[in-house]
Amino acid sequence: MSQLGFHQQLQAWLQTPLGQALLEQEQRCLELIFPELFGYYLVQLGGGGFNFDLSAIMHFHSHAVLDISAQSQPLTSFVQADAIKLPVLSDAVDAVLMPHTLDFSTDPHEVLREVERILIPEGRVVIIGFNPFSLWGAWRLVNGSSEPIPWQSHFLGLRRINDWLSLLEFDVEKTRHLMFRPPFQGQKMMERLICMEKMGRRFWPLLSSVYVVQAVKRVSTKTMVGPIWKRERSLLGGRIVEPTTRQSNG
Length: 250
Known about the structure:
- It is built from nine helices and seven strands; from the N terminus they run H-H-E-E-E-E-H-E-H-H-H-E-H-H-E-H.
- By secondary structure, it is an alpha/beta fold.
- It has one domain (about 5-235): 3-Layer(aba) Sandwich (Rossmann fold), CATH 3.40.50.
- It has a seven-stranded mixed beta sheet with strand order 3-2-1-4-5-7-6, with helices on both faces.
- Strand 4, helix 3 (about 110-120) and strand 5 (about 120-130) form a beta-alpha-beta unit.
- It starts with a helix and ends in a 17-residue tail after the last helix.
Protein backbone atom coordinates (compact mmCIF):
# COMPACT_ATOMS: atom_id res chain seq x y z
CA MET A 1 0.00 0.00 0.00
CA SER A 2 1.29 3.47 -0.86
CA GLN A 3 1.89 6.04 1.88
CA LEU A 4 -0.95 8.15 0.49
CA GLY A 5 -3.33 5.20 0.49
CA PHE A 6 -2.30 4.23 4.02
CA HIS A 7 -2.91 7.73 5.41
CA GLN A 8 -6.26 7.96 3.65
CA GLN A 9 -7.38 4.64 5.17
CA LEU A 10 -6.15 5.64 8.63
CA GLN A 11 -7.92 8.99 8.47
CA ALA A 12 -11.12 7.28 7.34
CA TRP A 13 -10.92 4.81 10.24
CA LEU A 14 -10.35 7.64 12.73
CA GLN A 15 -13.68 9.16 11.61
CA THR A 16 -15.58 6.03 12.66
CA PRO A 17 -17.24 5.86 16.12
CA LEU A 18 -14.39 3.68 17.38
CA GLY A 19 -11.73 6.00 15.97
CA GLN A 20 -13.47 9.05 17.42
CA ALA A 21 -13.67 7.39 20.85
CA LEU A 22 -9.93 6.70 20.65
CA LEU A 23 -9.09 10.29 19.69
CA GLU A 24 -11.30 11.67 22.46
CA GLN A 25 -9.56 9.62 25.15
CA GLU A 26 -6.10 10.43 23.82
CA GLN A 27 -6.95 14.15 23.68
CA ARG A 28 -8.09 14.10 27.32
CA CYS A 29 -4.93 12.25 28.34
CA LEU A 30 -2.70 14.82 26.62
CA GLU A 31 -4.63 17.57 28.41
CA LEU A 32 -3.33 16.07 31.64
CA ILE A 33 0.25 15.71 30.43
CA PHE A 34 1.13 18.85 28.53
CA PRO A 35 0.33 21.53 31.12
CA GLU A 36 3.29 20.07 33.08
CA LEU A 37 5.71 20.25 30.14
CA PHE A 38 7.39 23.33 28.77
CA GLY A 39 10.21 24.45 26.51
CA TYR A 40 10.93 26.02 23.15
CA TYR A 41 10.26 23.32 20.57
CA LEU A 42 7.57 20.64 20.54
CA VAL A 43 7.66 18.17 17.64
CA GLN A 44 4.93 15.69 16.77
CA LEU A 45 6.14 12.74 14.71
CA GLY A 46 3.37 11.56 12.42
CA GLY A 47 0.04 13.16 11.72
CA GLY A 48 -2.13 10.71 9.85
CA GLY A 49 -5.35 12.06 11.30
CA PHE A 50 -4.19 12.39 14.92
CA ASN A 51 -5.08 16.06 15.02
CA PHE A 52 -4.82 16.97 18.68
CA ASP A 53 -5.59 20.50 19.84
CA LEU A 54 -2.73 21.42 22.18
CA SER A 55 -2.94 25.19 21.75
CA ALA A 56 -4.64 25.86 25.08
CA ILE A 57 -2.59 23.47 27.21
CA MET A 58 1.02 23.55 26.02
CA HIS A 59 3.83 25.83 27.12
CA PHE A 60 6.04 25.73 24.03
CA HIS A 61 7.08 28.55 21.73
CA SER A 62 6.85 26.43 18.58
CA HIS A 63 4.87 23.29 17.64
CA ALA A 64 5.57 21.42 14.42
CA VAL A 65 4.32 18.20 12.86
CA LEU A 66 6.83 16.06 10.95
CA ASP A 67 5.13 13.48 8.76
CA ILE A 68 5.88 11.71 5.51
CA SER A 69 2.38 12.46 4.23
CA ALA A 70 1.31 15.83 2.86
CA GLN A 71 -1.48 16.45 5.36
CA SER A 72 -1.00 19.54 7.52
CA GLN A 73 -2.68 20.25 10.84
CA PRO A 74 -4.27 23.46 12.13
CA LEU A 75 -2.31 25.77 14.41
CA THR A 76 1.01 24.03 13.67
CA SER A 77 3.92 24.16 11.26
CA PHE A 78 4.18 21.14 8.97
CA VAL A 79 7.33 19.56 7.57
CA GLN A 80 7.32 16.56 5.24
CA ALA A 81 9.87 14.15 6.68
CA ASP A 82 10.53 10.49 7.39
CA ALA A 83 10.72 9.69 11.12
CA ILE A 84 13.56 7.23 10.48
CA LYS A 85 15.83 10.05 9.26
CA LEU A 86 14.67 13.34 10.72
CA PRO A 87 15.97 16.61 9.23
CA VAL A 88 16.41 18.02 12.74
CA LEU A 89 19.49 19.23 14.58
CA SER A 90 20.78 17.02 17.38
CA ASP A 91 20.00 18.17 20.95
CA ALA A 92 17.54 20.77 19.63
CA VAL A 93 14.00 19.73 20.64
CA ASP A 94 12.44 20.03 24.10
CA ALA A 95 9.61 17.50 23.68
CA VAL A 96 8.43 14.92 21.15
CA LEU A 97 4.88 13.59 20.82
CA MET A 98 4.48 10.23 19.06
CA PRO A 99 0.80 9.29 18.50
CA HIS A 100 1.05 5.66 17.37
CA THR A 101 4.17 6.60 15.42
CA LEU A 102 5.98 3.40 16.42
CA ASP A 103 2.90 1.28 15.66
CA PHE A 104 2.95 2.37 12.03
CA SER A 105 6.71 2.65 11.48
CA THR A 106 8.74 0.24 9.37
CA ASP A 107 11.60 0.49 11.90
CA PRO A 108 10.25 1.61 15.30
CA HIS A 109 13.52 1.17 17.17
CA GLU A 110 15.35 3.40 14.71
CA VAL A 111 12.64 6.04 15.14
CA LEU A 112 13.27 6.01 18.90
CA ARG A 113 17.00 6.41 18.24
CA GLU A 114 16.25 9.49 16.18
CA VAL A 115 14.06 10.87 18.96
CA GLU A 116 16.89 10.40 21.44
CA ARG A 117 19.24 12.23 19.08
CA ILE A 118 17.09 15.32 18.56
CA LEU A 119 15.96 15.73 22.18
CA ILE A 120 17.89 17.98 24.52
CA PRO A 121 19.08 16.46 27.83
CA GLU A 122 16.06 16.39 30.16
CA GLY A 123 13.80 16.54 27.09
CA ARG A 124 10.54 14.59 27.20
CA VAL A 125 8.97 12.07 24.85
CA VAL A 126 5.31 11.07 24.97
CA ILE A 127 4.57 7.76 23.24
CA ILE A 128 1.04 6.57 22.46
CA GLY A 129 0.78 2.94 21.38
CA PHE A 130 -1.56 -0.02 20.95
CA ASN A 131 -1.29 -2.76 23.57
CA PRO A 132 -1.19 -6.31 22.11
CA PHE A 133 -2.30 -7.78 25.46
CA SER A 134 -5.80 -6.33 25.38
CA LEU A 135 -9.24 -6.79 23.85
CA TRP A 136 -8.02 -4.84 20.84
CA GLY A 137 -4.98 -7.08 20.60
CA ALA A 138 -7.19 -10.17 20.64
CA TRP A 139 -9.43 -8.66 17.94
CA ARG A 140 -6.31 -7.99 15.86
CA LEU A 141 -5.26 -11.65 16.04
CA VAL A 142 -8.69 -12.85 14.91
CA ASN A 143 -9.68 -10.19 12.37
CA GLY A 144 -6.46 -8.40 11.45
CA SER A 145 -6.13 -9.98 8.03
CA SER A 146 -9.56 -8.79 6.91
CA GLU A 147 -9.43 -5.32 8.51
CA PRO A 148 -5.99 -3.85 7.77
CA ILE A 149 -6.30 -0.39 9.40
CA PRO A 150 -5.21 -0.17 12.19
CA TRP A 151 -5.10 -3.88 13.00
CA GLN A 152 -2.03 -4.69 10.90
CA SER A 153 0.14 -2.19 12.77
CA HIS A 154 2.83 -3.45 15.16
CA PHE A 155 0.95 -3.36 18.51
CA LEU A 156 4.24 -3.19 20.43
CA GLY A 157 4.15 -4.43 24.01
CA LEU A 158 4.72 -1.97 26.82
CA ARG A 159 7.63 -4.02 28.16
CA ARG A 160 9.40 -3.79 24.81
CA ILE A 161 8.87 -0.03 24.68
CA ASN A 162 10.27 0.34 28.20
CA ASP A 163 13.27 -1.85 27.33
CA TRP A 164 14.05 0.26 24.25
CA LEU A 165 13.73 3.47 26.26
CA SER A 166 16.07 2.10 28.93
CA LEU A 167 18.67 1.11 26.32
CA LEU A 168 18.53 4.65 24.91
CA GLU A 169 18.99 6.07 28.42
CA PHE A 170 15.48 7.33 29.05
CA ASP A 171 13.73 7.18 32.40
CA VAL A 172 10.01 6.42 32.28
CA GLU A 173 8.21 9.01 34.40
CA LYS A 174 4.55 8.05 33.97
CA THR A 175 2.45 5.48 32.18
CA ARG A 176 -1.27 5.94 31.57
CA HIS A 177 -3.78 3.38 30.30
CA LEU A 178 -6.71 4.11 27.96
CA MET A 179 -9.51 2.31 26.08
CA PHE A 180 -10.87 -0.72 27.90
CA ARG A 181 -13.95 -1.23 25.73
CA PRO A 182 -13.85 -3.86 22.95
CA PRO A 183 -13.40 -2.50 19.42
CA PHE A 184 -17.07 -2.33 18.44
CA GLN A 185 -18.02 0.22 15.81
CA GLY A 186 -21.62 0.85 16.81
CA GLN A 187 -22.06 4.22 18.52
CA LYS A 188 -24.81 2.95 20.85
CA MET A 189 -22.81 -0.11 21.84
CA MET A 190 -19.77 2.05 22.61
CA GLU A 191 -21.92 4.26 24.83
CA ARG A 192 -23.41 1.28 26.67
CA LEU A 193 -19.96 -0.10 27.46
CA ILE A 194 -18.47 3.15 28.73
CA CYS A 195 -18.63 1.78 32.29
CA MET A 196 -15.77 -0.54 31.31
CA GLU A 197 -13.42 2.46 31.18
CA LYS A 198 -13.68 3.24 34.89
CA MET A 199 -13.62 -0.42 35.88
CA GLY A 200 -10.63 -1.14 33.68
CA ARG A 201 -8.56 1.73 35.05
CA ARG A 202 -9.25 0.47 38.56
CA PHE A 203 -9.08 -3.32 38.24
CA TRP A 204 -7.11 -4.29 35.10
CA PRO A 205 -5.05 -1.26 33.91
CA LEU A 206 -2.38 -3.38 32.21
CA LEU A 207 -5.03 -4.79 29.86
CA SER A 208 -5.87 -1.40 28.36
CA SER A 209 -5.92 -1.25 24.58
CA VAL A 210 -3.78 1.91 24.50
CA TYR A 211 -0.87 3.04 26.68
CA VAL A 212 0.68 6.49 26.97
CA VAL A 213 4.29 6.58 28.14
CA GLN A 214 6.03 9.76 29.27
CA ALA A 215 9.83 9.48 29.52
CA VAL A 216 12.74 11.86 30.07
CA LYS A 217 16.13 11.76 28.36
CA ARG A 218 18.84 11.32 30.97
CA VAL A 219 21.65 13.87 31.13
CA SER A 220 24.91 12.18 30.16
CA THR A 221 28.03 13.39 31.95
CA LYS A 222 29.95 12.67 28.75
CA THR A 223 27.79 14.83 26.49
CA MET A 224 27.70 18.61 26.43
CA VAL A 225 24.53 20.40 25.46
CA GLY A 226 24.73 21.68 21.88
CA PRO A 227 25.87 25.27 21.39
CA ILE A 228 23.20 27.90 21.88
CA TRP A 229 23.81 29.36 18.43
CA LYS A 230 22.39 26.21 16.85
CA ARG A 231 19.05 26.72 18.57
CA GLU A 232 19.03 30.38 17.58
CA ARG A 233 19.91 29.66 13.97
CA SER A 234 17.11 27.12 13.67
CA LEU A 235 14.56 29.88 14.26
CA LEU A 236 15.18 31.41 10.84
CA GLY A 237 11.96 31.51 8.85
CA GLY A 238 10.02 30.10 11.77
CA ARG A 239 11.34 26.60 11.00
CA ILE A 240 12.78 24.26 13.57
CA VAL A 241 14.51 21.91 11.19
CA GLU A 242 17.65 21.80 9.12
CA PRO A 243 19.14 18.89 7.19
CA THR A 244 21.51 16.89 9.36
CA THR A 245 23.06 13.42 9.48
CA ARG A 246 23.61 11.07 12.39
CA GLN A 247 27.14 11.04 13.73
CA SER A 248 28.75 7.64 13.96
CA ASN A 249 29.21 6.20 17.44
CA GLY A 250 32.09 4.11 16.26
